[in-house]
Inverse folding.
């Protein structure tokens, strides 16, 4: 096991100005770490407030040379690999998703091995499971992804575990539920929840591209960032990849909760076939979880000292809306 991280050890976040990466960067900066954000398309609006406390490097995880150069130049000791093409985007363009999610994880792992990086944190997903995965699933359950995104995440887990076994590399992963929060952009099943809440908070019509019967397992980004920090700092692990549980939220209940805070909130359904297909798998698994009374699984991980804090729809929606409304100027710009 590697030594504990210290603030003098530079930390690289791939996808660093993306949704999860930017929230994580704020947490790292608040804790006094030196942070380097590696990003193909830097979005400085997401890191407003910490932009002068981080270093942003424009680069693509599909380009091994740029990763090697960055690790050498900044003497990177730890990596959070958050860069990824998400579910619907990956379904629409498998070639690009392969470059980012498959070639990308190989490039970053290989560069990390070459330069002796101490700890490597990989963001995986519950999408590695599918309809044929024995239920209720756990960390060692059969992986049966039903999407290209899920396939790429399963590959990342296996490759990281190989590097651990072959090279003694300290690889650590987490399979998140659907992460929502301020600043999430894009399209598809896993983005719709965030888009609707943020639009309502900004006084805009929220567009939902999945059926109103959808129910997804949701983890708020504040809890996700807490988990990543806990996983990174844990002195001892019982496994290489953990599951971080969330809150099953039907889209109907989400809309109703938003309207208790913003009664005038407007919603418009524009269904997208790709988003529907992704949502169908998530909904199937989430419904099974609820029917079997297993919805609180993986909300309390003793190994890591982590416990889900935002564990109800009202808590998630209230914090989300208040956060965006306090920063309307920022979130109206991107």
């Amino acid at each position: 096991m590697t030594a504990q991280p210290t603030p003098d050890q530079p930390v690289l976040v791939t996808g660093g100005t993306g949704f999860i990466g930017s929230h994580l960067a704020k947490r790292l900066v608040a804790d006094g770490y030196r942070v380097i954000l590696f990003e193909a398309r830097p979005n400085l609006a997401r890191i407003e407030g910490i932009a002068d406390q981080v270093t942003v490097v424009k680069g693509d995880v599909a380009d091994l040379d740029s990763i090697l150069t960055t690790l050498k130049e900044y003497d990177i000791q730890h990596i959070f690999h958050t860069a990824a093409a998400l579910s619907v985007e990956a379904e629409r363009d498998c070639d690009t998703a392969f470059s980012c999610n498959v070639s990308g994880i190989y490039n970053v792992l290989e560069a990390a091995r070459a330069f002796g990086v101490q700890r490597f944190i990989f963001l995986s997903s519950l999408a590695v499971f599918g309809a044929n995965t024995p239920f209720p699933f756990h960390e060692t359950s059969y992986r049966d992804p039903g999407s290209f995104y899920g396939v790429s995440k399963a590959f990342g887990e296996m490759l990281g575990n190989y590097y651990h076994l072959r090279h003694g590399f300290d690889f650590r992963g987490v399979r998140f539920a659907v992460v929502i929060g301020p600043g999430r952009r894009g399209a598809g099943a896993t983005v719709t929840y965030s888009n609707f809440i943020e639009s309502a908070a900004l006084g805009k019509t929220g567009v939902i591209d999945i059926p109103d019967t959808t129910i997804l397992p949701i983890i708020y980004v504040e809890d996700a960032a807490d988990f990543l920090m806990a996983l990174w700092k844990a002195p001892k692990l019982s496994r290489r990849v953990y599951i971080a549980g969330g809150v099953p939220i039907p889209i109907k209940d989400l809309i109703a909760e938003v309207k208790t805070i913003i009664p005038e909130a407007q919603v418009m359904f524009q269904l997208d076939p790709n988003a529907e297909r992704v949502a169908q798998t998530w909904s199937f698994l989430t419904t099974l979880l609820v029917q079997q009374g297993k919805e609180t699984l993986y909300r309390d991980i003793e190994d890591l000292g982590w416990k889900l804090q935002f564990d109800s729809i009202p808590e998630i929606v209230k914090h989300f809306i208040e956060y965006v409304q306090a920063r309307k100027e920022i979130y109206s710009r991107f």
Remarks:
- The longest helix spans residues 94-114.
- The mean pLDDT is 93.
- The chain has two domains: 11-177+221-244, 180-217+247-295+302-331.
- Residues 11-177+221-244 form a domain with the Rossmann fold fold (CATH 3.40.50.720).
